[in-house]
Amino acid sequence: MRVNLSQSADEAGVAKTMPKDKKTKGLFNYDAKVSFKELAPLGLQHVAAAIAGIVTPGIMVAKACKLSGSDTTLIIQTSLIMAGIATLIQLFPIFRRFGSRLPMMMGASFATVPILLIIGGSYGIGSIFGAQLIGGLVVLTMGFFLKYIRILFPPIVTGTVILSIGLSLFPVAVKYMAGGAGSATFGSVQNWSVAIVTFIVVFTLNYFGKGLFKLASILIGMIVGYILALTMGMVNFGPVQSASFMQVIPPMHFGIRFDLIPILLLTIIFLVDAVQSIGQFTATTMGAMDRQPTDRELSGAIMGKGLINTLGSFFGGLAVGTFGQNVGLVIETKVINKYILTFSSIFLVVAGFVPKVASILTTIPYAVIGGATISVFATIAMTGIRTIVSAGLSSLNVGIVGLSLAAGVGVALSPNCLAGFPAWVNTVFGTSEVILTTILAVILNLVLNIIKKPEKAQATKG
């Protein structure tokens, strides 16, 4: 008799984490059919958590490339559409190879933004999509061979990466709560009041609520925060009034150029971001399913990501990545039903073709988003710690985690500490806690757990 170990692991995780309310039990099963009244609020919750992260990179890149207003709108639209398609690929793998079949929300990758700004400002937006095309193919190839190199990414490495992701997101949440970096009202009492009220609602429902009220705590908190912000005059409906009702996405609108330096820079970032994605997918299965992801799932996840980035380069869609806030939502609620994120994906695709819909989502104040997601980011960090502990706290593992975080976080929190190096070095290694931490964790694990450990065992045997 053939036993599906992956399915058994899923069911075990579901049984362990499922709330007592039997009416919602289908939400904790990947393939179960669920009602629309369960589907809609949880799907919209994922959209609300992701929307700012999806549209913001496009706006930043458009400014760096000095695009017109219409082209900026086009970038935002393609970001929404590609986020939806990328998520659907992860939920329903193409040819059973491109995609993970895991509940993962995809969207514009913040990890690539610093490099995209440099490329866009120096070489133009066509060069961004040329580099993305090559980088996407490299990542796709990496995913194909992932099972042969997965030894480089054991739980001690992925746990360290997940923890660094959580730590890197804390300042993002706090800046959102304060009103968004660069805002004229940044740090105001008004912003903090809205953020704190939003957080209190989320916290109360999450720890004291039941059923859908508990599962949709983020969405409900954001609705309450949005209404409060509306009464305080913090919501700007200008984008809604100026947005059109329908917009077709023309292929090759921005062109494609192949320049060596942009290709090298973006490919390096893509590879590091792929390791970060492995950490995010691992966090999802560990936190919501109580198991490690399989080789096939991780291979499909990376191949799916490479595929959508390659296709996106032809349509003006910026590189996609995993979304930490949505990973946190899945972990916190344990809701892994594929139809929840299917609803979210379809909503994003429709919003991409109907700018009026997308513009409504962009009116959500940063303070509301920050108040709703800070607990989500905390969950990600704690999932990283949990993964590290599951690997064992041997002296070698402690060294791997401690040294990787010390260097990665230390450099990121020390502006201009790499000022003596070429500008690209600071951009790649000095702007994110995750990148340097990931590289060091892989190298230190290779040295201490793969090379040194066998030698030690051989010496003991002798």
Automatic annotation (TrEMBL):
InterPro entries (alphabetical): NCS2 (IPR006043), Xan_ur_permease (IPR006042)
Residue ranges of the TM segments: 42-62, 74-95, 102-123, 156-177, 189-208, 215-234, 254-272, 339-358, 364-384, 396-414, 434-451
Main location: membrane
Superkingdom as given in the UniProt entry: Bacteria
Location in the cell: Membrane
Keywords for this protein: Membrane, Transmembrane, Transmembrane helix, Transport
Topology of this chain in the membrane: Multi-pass membrane protein
GO CC, alphabetical: plasma membrane
Family named by the database record: Belongs to the nucleobase:cation symporter-2 (NCS2) (TC 2.A.40) family.
Name used for this protein in its record: Xanthine uracil permease family protein
Lineage: Bacteria, Bacillati, Bacillota, Bacilli, Lactobacillales
